[in-house]
Design a protein that fits this description.
By secondary structure, the chain is α/β, with parallel strands linked by helices. The chain has eleven helices and twelve strands. The longest helix has 19 residues.
């Protein structure tokens, strides 16, 4: 970005906005008004902040930018899933997804442009890493998808999953800030219990989540329950093996009392045997879990194949015999590359 670009006001904290108003000798309550326009009402321009005097609106326009993300494409799946392309201020394109179900809708949002993890089953990994998203860019995705939910389905957004492009815990300060805006009273007011953050498992930051008493749900993209297998598909595991992840998750559960969701992508003849199911059960014995078994969604230039449903059910039945809560999660939006692991499959950055 240009070094001459005016600072985006949404990158400022409330305290920083208050300090600005103090510096120009404006009344303190004006800062609260602006903050509500930005985060509660999602106002796209200073000139639309109608309860501010015109000279103040002009001063804000001269001093700050207010540049939201812009829609750059929309695709609708045969199952009514909608994938959105969003163009950022620096012309990078990210993707978000609106997933409908009975009487509810879920927004899947991105936290980074691209991804640095290099997971071998994921389309986003083929793009490489561009940059972290700012909190405002995450909130914008939620607002866009909420508007589409109301327009298409006649209901507000029900749930949010941070499962789009990127690793959320590599961008935790901005993710934490975005969740604060999404859940705050001077914000969107969405309950944190309707939000799920999905991560490959960054042990140090998981411990920080515990210390922060993180309110949304935590999901771990595990996909293999031995280091030998996980190292092959998630390079991050080589530096932070499963024993380290387990220790962090035990700490998280002890500090928060919350159950952890384990996401397990079944890959044909790679991690889908009963021996693999036994290893998964062993991994999960140290803390309470819910397990989601996920269908693999074909990705161009990636050689894995989907496990047959019969084998998925055998895998599920074994885990249930160990008294575990297990769901087979059906993929949505496969025909428009909007399903798990497919983002950025068509809308190239």
């Amino acid at each position: 970005m240009s070094g001459n670009r005016k600072p985006d006001i949404r990158s400022l904290s409330r305290e920083e906005i208050e300090a600005f108003f103090s510096s120009i000798r404006e009344k303190p309550f004006r800062a609260k008004q602006v903050y509500e326009w930005l985060w509660k009402k999602g106002c796209p321009s200073f000139q639309e902040m109608s309860n501010l005097p015109l000279p103040l609106r002009n001063k804000l326009t001269e001093t700050f930018s207010l540049e939201g993300i812009r829609e750059t494409g929309r695709q609708k799946s045969s199952d009514d899933t909608i994938k959105m392309g969003f163009r950022l201020v620096d012309d990078i394109v990210i993707e978000g997804v609106l997933i409908p179900a009975e009487e509810r809708t879920t927004a899947c949002i991105s936290t980074q442009a691209g991804c640095a993890l290099g997971c071998t089953f994921c389309a986003t990994a083929t793009l490489g890493f561009y940059r972290n998203l700012m909190a405002a860019e995450m909130v914008d995705q939620v607002r866009y998808l909420d508007e589409i939910s109301r327009e298409v389905h006649g209901i507000p957004l029900s749930n949010i999953v941070l499962m789009g492009m990127g690793e959320p815990l590599f961008n935790y300060p901005q993710v934490k800030r975005a969740i604060g805006f999404i859940t705050g009273e001077v914000g969107m007011g969405i309950s944190p219990q309707r939000i799920t953050l999905s991560t490959v498992g960054v042990p140090k930051v998981i411990r920080q989540l515990a210390d922060d008493q993180f309110k949304p749900h935590l999901a771990i993209s595990l996909h293999a329950a031995t280091d030998a297998l996980r190292n092959q598909i998630i390079p991050f595991n080589r530096q932070h093996p499963l024993a380290e992840l387990t220790t962090a998750l035990v700490y998280y559960n002890q500090k928060t009392g919350k159950r952890i969701t384990i996401e397990y992508l079944l890959l044909k003849e790679f991690n889908d045997t009963l021996s693999d199911a036994r290893a998964l059960a062993e991994f999960c014995k140290s803390f309470p879990v819910k397990i989601n078994l996920i269908e693999f969604n074909p990705v161009e230039r990636i050689g894995f194949q989907r496990t047959e449903m019969r084998r998925m059910k055998e895998f599920r039945d074994f885990l249930e015999s160990r008294n575990m809560v297990v769901n087979i999660r059906q993929s949505r939006g496969k025909d428009i590359d909007a399903a798990c692991g497919q983002l950025a499959g068509r809308n190239k950055l």
